[in-house]
Task: inverse folding
């Protein structure tokens, strides 16, 4: 019975943490939903140049004070933008000492033609951030993974499908640097009062208060709430495919 008195407040704090992190991600998804509606309603399709409209859409988020997003835009399916095949209307926010672009003060557009190693992007069906929204018609979080194309750092990619004329036309998306996410997530996770880990759906560590579980580590994805010595519990972050896992060491 004594253990239950310990477990209940811990579980309550873990649920509060999961809810707060879910709200953080849902704020980004709300932005994607707004972008999705703008792209679907755009009149730039027929002109074959949707880039200016997308840039105007994403620039405020990329240049905000202390931005949450490091990259954002619209990725069109092959042939959707007139006169173009696969098309990336994608921008990176201002960067500091980036290994590829150096230091920038304004958003810069991703130029696939200048990246010889970007051939893997030609097959969107092989890429989780495109494949899952295409298959499910729902939003999705991919990662954490190291972005070798732009940031050379761990990121999460959030995407939502864009539909035009009843057909999948591409995805709107946003990249979050994991180290930027840590600044918001770690205080929430430390408040749990026990080692806490933010896990992806695949069981990879996104953020952790346990130094033995760094980002990218594969942890147990199926931990379930349980009471007793060595309490382990997994608590879903609402509206996402992420969860908070906690462990109470007796």
Result:
């Amino acid at each position: 019975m004594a253990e239950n008195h310990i477990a209940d407040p811990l579980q309550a704090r873990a649920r509060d943490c999961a809810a707060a992190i879910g709200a953080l991600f849902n704020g980004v998804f709300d932005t994607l939903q707004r972008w999705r509606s703008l792209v679907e309603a755009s009149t730039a399709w027929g002109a074959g140049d949707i880039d200016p409209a997308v840039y105007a859409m994403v620039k405020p988020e990329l240049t905000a004070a202390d931005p949450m997003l490091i990259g954002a835009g619209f990725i069109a399916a092959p042939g959707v933008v007139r006169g173009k095949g696969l098309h990336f209307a994608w921008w990176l926010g201002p960067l500091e000492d980036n290994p590829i672009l150096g230091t920038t003060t304004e958003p810069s557009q991703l130029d696939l033609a200048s990246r010889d190693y970007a051939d893997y992007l030609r097959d969107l069906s092989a890429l989780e951030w495109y494949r899952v929204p295409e298959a499910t018609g729902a939003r999705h979080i991919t990662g954490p993974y190291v972005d070798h194309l732009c940031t050379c750092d761990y990121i999460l990619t959030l995407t939502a499908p864009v539909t035009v004329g009843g057909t999948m036309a591409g995805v709107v998306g946003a990249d979050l640097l994991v180290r930027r996410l840590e600044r918001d997530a770690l205080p929430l996770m430390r408040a749990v009062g026990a080692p806490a880990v933010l896990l992806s759906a695949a069981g990879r560590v996104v953020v952790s208060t346990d130094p033995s579980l760094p980002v990218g580590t594969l942890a147990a994805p199926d931990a379930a709430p349980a009471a007793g010595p060595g309490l382990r519990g997994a608590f879903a972050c609402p509206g996402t495919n992420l969860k908070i896992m906690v462990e109470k060491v007796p």
Q: What stands out?
A: Residues 2-40 form the longest helix (39 residues).
